Fold:
Amino acid sequence: MSTRANRGFTLIELIIAIALIGIIASFAIPQFGGMIDRNRVVSTTNSVVGLLNFARSEAIRRNVRVQLDFSQEPVEAQLVSDSSVIRVIEPLASGTSIGLTTPNGASPTKVVFRSNGTTNALESGGVGEAVWVRICSGDAGGREIVIDPGGRLNTRAPNTACP
Structure:
């Protein structure tokens, strides 16, 4: 009685395994792009929240006004008195954008924290109104950081889709 040793895959088994891997990959790869966009939005949101919290705390600690200019990249926290930069976040990933709006529809470019921690948006009349910082990337739903007039931050999903 001779027994034949099992020496690996047959050609048919190998072709079937490759076909199954191809079918599974065709479903997974498109979802991977969406996951990357969502991670970019979350990462950028966390960086901006950290910068906003830092700017507010520095304004209170130093008893000065601190501004964040969102019209330039990377976004910087600067002292208003002498324009010295005190912190910078990393440049935005490709396809990621940051925009500011207010409830009255204005589009400011800067947010200023006063020495008591309150805020206003420049170029919008901004006294006593909230500022919304919207972060978008690709097909991801985006995130919104709401800065109330008292300087408190809250993140949420935006009310409208990203452009």
Remarks:
- The chain has a mean pLDDT of 84.
- Residues 82 and 122 are 17 Å apart (CA to CA).
- The chain has one helix and nine strands.
